[in-house]
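In the previous chapter we treated chains in isolation. Here, by contrast, the input contains two separate entities that must be folded as one system, with a combined length of 880 residues.
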Amino acid sequence: MKTKYLFIALAFAALVGCNKNETEEKPVEAKAGNYVGTFTAEASTGTLIEDGIRVNFTPDEGGNTCTLILYQARFSPRMLVQVDVTIPSVNMVCGTDKITLSCDNVVPLALGGEFTNYTVKDFQGEIKGGNFSFSTKFGSTPTTYSGTLEQLSE
Amino acid sequence: MSTFLFTILIALAQVPDTLIAPSTVTALKDPITLGKVASPVSQLRSEALESSGIYRPNMLSSRVPGLHIPDYGASLTSTIYLRGLGSRMENPVLGLYVDGFPVLDKNAYDFDWEGIRNATLLRGPQGTLYGRNSMGGVLSLRTLSPSDAVRPSVRLEYGTANTLRLGFLATSGENAFSATFRHGDGFFPNTFKDELCDPYDGLSLRWKWEKPSGEGDYLSNVLYAGLSREGGFAYGLYEDGVQHDVAYNDEGSYARLSVLEGFRLRHRSEKISTELSASLQWLSDDMHMDQDYTPKPIFTLRQKQDSGAGTLELSFRRNDLKAAWQPVTGVFAFFKLNHSLAPVEFRRQGIESLILDNANRNIPEEIGYLTIADQEIPVLSDFLIGNWNAAVFHESTLRKGRWLFTAGIRLDYEGGHMDYDCKTTLHYRFMPYMKAEKEYKLPYRGSLDHSRVVALPKFSVLYEAAEWLFVYLNAARGYRAGGFNTQIFSDILQNLTMNGLMKDLGVYLVKPFKGIDASATEYDPESAWNYEAGARIRKGRFGLESSVYYIDVRNQQLTTFPPGQSIGRMMTNAGRSRSIGAESALQWRGKDMHGEVCWAWCDARFVSYDDGNADYSGNHIPYAPAHTLYVGGGYTFHLGEYSLVADASLRGAGPFWWNESNTRKEPLQLYLDGRLALARGRWELYLRGTNLTDNGGRCFYFKSVGNEFFASVKPRILITGLSIKF
């Protein structure tokens, strides 16, 4: 009789344990999307703050990296042009409540080629609850970004 | 007997040019004779035209008070200014009729003629009877008819610049034929190419058939054809106060074929005469232009057009010309289809100065710089433009004793449609990032439509104070059609290319290239109310016609350049402007002596005009002269069987203001012309000269890619000629 109750208790414990693992360990799904927010650059010539800057997040095939495109970005108040900058191969880790992004010494693409003067260093970012933020250096210019999801990509 | 006949012939040849005998001259469309039209009228008959050497419309400048048609460029640049109205492009302010058929295309306005019976110009808006593009007046050219029964004649002229001109005229039964050929080596050297830049070869043919049919019925058919090929565009750079010679490296030429076939039927019933006139018109031309007008390979323009049109008019008028009430009622319609190709080609220096310099000026050096590998970039444009018009008109003239009252109205509907298909391709590389050139293509296609209904009323009163004195007042509205300015497309594409190329690169200028889109190429009609008071005197050998006027212009059409170092012209509607003026023509004819003075003064200014860059209110309208002047006279010496005629005249126009800001001004320029003719029987040998003092002057100004250019007046020209009537 006691053995029977022991088996029942063990079976119950196993069942509860399995259910608890499924709920706690499911990672966030990485979906492509556009975020719109504020980009700040601490240039040697002054601080640039620009609103309405769009960033596209697209996971790569394989699921471990992603590509970010920063649209119409400037890196100093004296820069008379805005450029679209693509940061490839950003490391991506899907956690249970957020997606963590990182990379270092990645040469971004812009103006048709490698934008070596603005090599991305010490990139740290996260996507959580429809918000995207990151901090990095483009070349020697520290920058930060904070934006919200604009639309869901198909 | 022969001496008597010679004397009569010579006396007839000396009939004053613009004295109009009211009882013998039939008005153009007006239901009354020219002598009682409440508008100033100028008329030159064939003898005056021939003796003055006038064989093109622009030669009427200053001879008609206020008329200014500068002679520059090529035959397609026939710009007409009258009473402060006019512009360098698109629709004219002067309607042109040849034997009663309207010439629809302004590119066909400048042509050589032979065998013209008279040239009549009604000044002031004639929109009620003539519709569109007669806001300043109507020039009617009547060619000699078979019924004029003139003797066959030939004319041979030779003169300066190896100018050769041949003319032939003959009538036979119900037919009249004329032909004219002209060749000239040119007057202005292109010092870069070491050749004359403005040679001319042209041939004009005319056939006219007339047949009165039955009592009062009338049939006629006219066919004109003109073929010409010329250089032109004798524009010299003006820089730092120095006028340079004409010097450019690319082709400058204009070739044209124009044909007009017209048919007229007039039927006289018991009380009403009905007239039906229809025409088919064709124009093909091909223009090449070095658009920068410098020796540098910057950019060129070609414009090749094929244009066909048909006109139809039906009018009714009363047979009883003695009745107090004289009406004319009618309907008019036309359709015109124009296909034009207008490629602009940027050469290497143009790519560098107009595209790359502009782009890289806005890109920080630390970012990089743009390069383009192409040696030439073609910007191709294909336009298909249709225009149509329908109108109904009525004018009534009522005679009450010495008073003549006239009122009329025209309702004019006009529509237009343009399809445009433009494209360009270039190969660019952004340094130092791109490893190879990338192709960039820009297509730009679309269509535009417009339509307008315009009412053109007219009111006048004429009082016959005496048999020799008429005074009148009139108020009339005229309009100049709107349309599509295709020349600005090169500028639109230049800006679209730069912005598109930057976007393709992922570069966005903080201050993007300013530009306009195709919708801005459409411009509205220009309209004007003309208020005038005048007097007409004919007493014996003396004739005088004077008037004063005020014109209120709305939506004036002006040619401007977009801001910056632009390459295309654009038409804008400039708010309001006004013209105040006076005109006078005085003629005197003696037994062997005659004299003529034609003078006009016009103060034409913007009432309100702000183009977004500057406010030009109060400034003079550019290109319109403040004065035109013609003073001429002559004397005939009778030397037995011979007669020797000596004529001399002084003509001129000015001052002009060359731009809206009035920073460039040309003073009044006067030119001395003369003629000596020895005649006996049916032949006449003559020597004619224009600009006898070789007075330099400038007749045209414009800007291109930031540079200023002037065109000079033609130098002294001496022509010897022989005219024989068989």
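The helical segments of chain A are 2-24. Residues 16-22 of chain A have pLDDT under 50 and may be disordered. Compare these points with the single-chain example from earlier in the chapter.
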